[in-house]
Write a structure and sequence with these properties.
Strand content: over 45%
Distance between the termini: 58 Å
CATH topology of one domain: Immunoglobulin-like
Shape: globular
Oligomer: single chain
Largest sheet: 26 strands, antiparallel
Number of helices: 3
Structural class: mainly beta
Radius of gyration: 26 Å
Length: about 750
């Protein structure tokens, strides 16, 4: 009966989306360029003079109920190879532009910028973003799951642009190749929007209105791009990206000689159809990937670090967005990485995209080789494995909702190790979205399959969100069974470490996580909005015995100058089922039992428009059977537009009764990002972590000598902190060359 009621509610919400009164979206008629366009940032060619112009942007910040104070005029054209965009962005003559750097993939919210949003398949789910700042730095990103959480800038693609700056305006031209987009020629109406971030005048605006409680990248609020003629075929699209690398590694602690290793590899991208892409990789490499940021971990579970490898990026939502953030049936970092060590990837292939107007598919297979890795219990030989994923996503109700199916498979293909012969996950997700994004949700059921099946091999969850400018209400439930093993996934809460026996013990759990937030918008020149909220986060052991509980009250103020202030109070309960050493130091672990404690905290971040920005947060209160005082602070100075110098500092002072120890855990991270021009970047940062008693230095010089082609020079080293002793050093030179056919 309960299941039938839930299905009825979901169908009612989805169907209701079709009947909601929506403002008529704006339309732009895209015409063919009648003559050549010279890309120089000055839209003065004859073709531009005859193009249709559109303006009258509406404010998104600080308000969303009036036309923008600053004028933005946009034109678009196309030919058989490119979509062209020109814009004239006016501003007051006084003041400087706010630009973080010349580096590619800048943060839109921290820059004066103009952005284009395209939904070529008009499915309200996936699209593209292309943006420029006034100094010509590019940012492109994928829009996934409707864009409610912004864009994914890890996606890189070839496109062309130029800008020009003047005292009272700046102009831009974009040329986006059809081969960079995934679309169908039969879809003649695309989703379209433009946005403008004018921080020097503290205004954000959009072409087609987007309510201020939603991200400007939310393609549910796109207008319409209507093609005046036939959409050009992208033609055959083949991109080959070979690389060559030489790495030198020296284990200083063991007095080993420097080990020099050359390597070569290849990525290939083949366009099967305009909306369907085949990606291939052979002997991929990790040398260009940034080092993961270190985090002080005072929890009992593993932390999540995002995927940064190019092969896993495009259409990644087809594979990575199943489940929830901590119940992921597929997590690509499980492939080719084990406890921080690389495992050789021999080859991989991925077919992904849209096969018709409503159905997306994704198929991926990756083969890894054998590798002996170091573990706490000694060397471990990993067998060769095949990792495969199959996913389908079917749009329903034409409003951004979809039903998705996934199967994840890991098969041992050689040798033997401690892993089972295979591990599989099959599951179905229903993603709910209404036409105005007021209701959103996700509901899923996943089943694990193993050589010997056992009870409780499944997981299910639900999330439902109601959002308006004044209210945000969330409901969330999760259940993970004791035997829900996802070898290629990320389910950290399932595994509990018993420090007395040194064993990991799996335990099923329930989670309930509702919240409600009320927001107010006063007529004020200082405060943009303020509000308060209540948040409850509770974990239960199987049988609904409360194991952990967090009840939080919070309040916040968002200022007109972009500064923010938040205050919160927490009542907590933690039931330790096994002894636990909180700090990771060689101290006596806390005994099994229930711990009740409370804390309060605050956070403040300054005006992001200023050249000098800073943030400060603090938390104090009881902690298990003792006390904890935490401080996090950071500052950055922008030497516009050439450099950003920053530093972060985190300190956790944990004071437990004497038998369990006292610790001062600190993490210090100075960082320098130098952008000599739009093609040459130098990044250096240091991480000093007293919890792991490690310090590492990482420096990388990147020269983008042509589109998607880079030369990387990377140096890194690791040291102990007590005493400061160098452990190892690494140096790498890598050349990546993009060949498009």
């Amino acid at each position: 009966m309960l299941l039938r009621l839930l299905v009825f509610v979901l169908l009612l919400l989805s169907w209701n989306a079709r009947a909601q009164n929506q403002p008529q979206p704006r339309e732009y008629l895209l015409q063919q360029a009648g003559s050549a366009i010279r890309l120089d940032g000055i839209p003065d060619e004859e073709a531009w003079k005859n193009a249709i112009s559109t303006e009258n942007f509406q404010q998104h910040f600080p308000f969303d109920s009036a036309l923008a104070n600053t004028r933005t005029v946009v034109k678009m054209l196309y030919d058989d190879q490119f979509i062209y965009v020109s814009a004239v962005c006016y501003h007051q003559p006084e003041g400087d532009h706010v630009v973080s750097s010349l580096r590619r993939d800048f943060a839109y919210s921290r820059n004066d910028a103009f952005a284009l949003y395209l939904d070529p398949l008009n499915d309200k789910t996936n699209g593209y973003c292309f943006a420029l700042n006034p100094y010509g730095a590019q940012m492109e990103g994928l829009i996934q799951t409707g864009g409610g959480f912004g864009t994914s800038p890890e996606w890189d693609q070839v496109w062309y642009s130029e800008v020009k700056r003047y005292p009272d305006h700046w102009t831009l031209e974009m040329a986006i190749p059809f081969r960079s987009l995934r679309y169908k020629q039969t879809v003649s109406r695309w989703g379209l929007n433009f946005s403008r971030n004018n921080l020097r005048q503290n205004e954000g605006s959009v072409w087609n209105p987007v309510p201020r409680n939603f991200n400007v990248a939310s393609i549910a609020f796109c207008g319409t791009l209507q093609w005046a003629g036939d959409i050009p075929a992208p033609g055959f699209n083949l991109a080959l990206v070979p690389y060559g690398i030489t790495q030198a590694y020296r284990n200083v602690a063991d007095n080993q000689k420097t080990d020099v290793t050359p390597g070569v590899g290849l990525d290939a991208r083949v366009s099967i159809r305009s909306s369907l892409n085949l990606d291939l990789t052979f002997n991929p490499d990790f040398a260009q990937v940034d080092v993961d940021r270190q985090i002080t971990n005072l929890t009992r579970f593993s932390l999540f670090f995002p995927e940064q490898r190019a092969f896993f990026q495009e259409n990644s939502d087809l594979f990575a967005r199943f489940g929830f953030s901590k119940i992921r049936p597929f997590f690509s970092r499980r492939i080719g990485l084990f406890n921080g060590e690389t495992v050789p990837i021999l080859a991989g292939a991925r077919l992904s995209g849209k096969v018709n107007e409503t159905l997306r598919i994704g198929m991926m297979t990756v083969q890894t080789g054998e590798k002996t890795v170091n573990t706490a219990s000694g060397p471990l030989k990993l067998a060769a494995q095949n990792h495969a994923v199959l996913a389908f996503q079917q749009d329903v109700f034409r409003n951004g909702s979809n039903i998705a199916f996934i199967m994840v498979n890991r098969d041992r293909t050689g040798g033997s190790d401690a892993s089972e012969a295979f591990n599989r996950i099959v599951g179905v997700d229903y993603n709910l979205a209404t036409r105005n994004n007021r209701w959103r949700g996700k509901f899923f059921y996943h089943q694990a399959l193993r050589p010997v099946n056992q009870p409780d091999q499944y997981a299910h969850a639900s999330w439902l969100n109601y959002s308006r400018p004044e209210w945000n209400i969330d409901w969330n439930h999760e259940y993970v069974g004791e035997n829900y093993l996802a070898d290629n996934g990320f389910v950290p809460r399932l595994f509990n470490f018993d420090q007395t026996s040194g064993r990991e013990i799996r335990m099923a759990y329930w989670r309930l996580e509702p919240s409600i937030t009320r927001r107010f918008y006063p007529r004020s020149k200082i405060v943009n909005n303020f509000g308060f909220g209540i948040y409850w986060n509770a974990y239960f052991r199987n049988g609904f015995q409360l194991n952990e509980n967090q009840l939080q009250g919070n309040s916040f103020i968002n200022f007109q100058n972009t500064a923010t202030l938040r205050v919160e109070f927490n009542e907590r309960k933690t039931g330790l089922l096994f002894p636990f050493n909180i700090t990771g130091r060689q101290l006596l672990p806390l005994p099994v039992g229930d711990y009740f404690y409370r804390d309060m905290g605050f956070s403040y971040s300054s005006d992001v428009r200023k050249r000098f920005t800073w943030y400060l947060s603090g938390n104090t209160g009881t902690f298990y059977n003792g006390h904890k005082n935490s401080v996090a602070m950071g500052a950055a100075y922008r030497l516009q537009p050439w450099a950003v110098l920053s530093a972060d500092f985190n300190s956790d002072e944990v004071n437990l009764p004497e038998t369990y120890g006292r610790s001062l855990l600190q993490l210090i991270g100075p960082r320098a990002e130098i952008t000599f021009n739009r093609s040459l970047f130098w990044t250096t940062f240091v991480q000093y972590n007293t919890q792991t008693q490690r310090m590492n230095i990482y420096t990388r010089l990147q020269w983008r000598f042509r589109p998607m082609s880079d030369l990387f020079i990377v140096y890194s080293d690791n040291s102990t902190t007590q005493p400061l002793t160098l452990l190892n050093q690494a140096f790498a030179v890598k050349l990546v060359y993009w060949l498009g056919v």
